[in-house]
Design goal:
The protein is 53% helix and 0% strand. It has 132 residues and is mostly helical.
């Protein structure tokens, strides 16, 4: 708990950058701009080598991929419950198929205000006049 918060550490780093690059921000020329960028990288990243930075980046990406894979696996195992269905004001709810019924999870039965008729989904589709 003795460590400063991230916000105060960021402010401190910004002050260090300002002190080291004082008077150089408005200078024209590639040397000064490269120096400013170099100082900013040193202060924000610390004294880490590029290999260490790449390794940390790879670790973050692999953790992110693992989380995404785990979430996908959970979603396939347990179908996520759809959000409550909403219908526009002028549309009859019985003309819209119940999402929960489609997943096999509707518990309202006859009291459900949405349709449980699977043929309704087909009725809403546009019919191809030119096909068979």
């Amino acid at each position: 708990k003795n460590e400063p918060s991230k916000k105060t550490a960021d402010k401190k780093n910004q002050r260090v950058i300002e002190d080291k690059t004082f008077g150089l921000k408005n200078k024209k020329g590639g040397k000064q701009q490269k120096f400013i960028q170099q100082v900013q990288k040193q202060v924000t990243l610390g004294n880490k080598t590029t290999k260490e930075m790449e390794k940390a980046k790879q670790e973050r990406l692999s953790k992110k991929d693992d989380k995404a894979r785990e979430l996908d696996e959970l979603n396939t195992l347990f179908k996520p419950v759809a959000d409550l269905q909403k219908v526009a004001k002028n549309i009859d709810p019985k003309s819209v198929l119940c999402v929960f019924f489609k997943q096999g999870q509707c518990q309202k039965g006859n009291k459900c205000k949405f349709s449980h008729d699977l043929n309704i989904a087909r009725k809403g589709e546009k019919k191809n006049v030119y096909g068979d």
